[in-house]
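Z., the sequence and structure:
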Amino acid sequence: MMYRMDHAYAKYRALLPEPLSLKPSEYVRRQVWATFQDDAVGAATYALFGEDNYMWASDFPHTDSTFPESHAWIEKNFEGVPDPVRRKIVHDNVVELYRMDLD
């Protein structure tokens, strides 16, 4: 989706009455927080979407949840994802988004 928005913007931006100061994908990365669960492709997508506003979800307490095997699913789905990126996606980003004071 972000690629297509950038592609269309590059092709048709001359038709806009006022140009954007950023590419459409940059607005998405800045303004949208996305989640995924139980999805190895989801974990790898940080490389395209960015790691700063991307979060893993367990979907607890729903029946489609990864609970009570959440840690095992994280290990499986985040294989090959650098540890600092994994920590952001699994923990730090949600703490930032919801302004959780963990001290």
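The beta strands are 34-36, 54-56. The radius of gyration is 17 Å.

Let me know what you think.
H.
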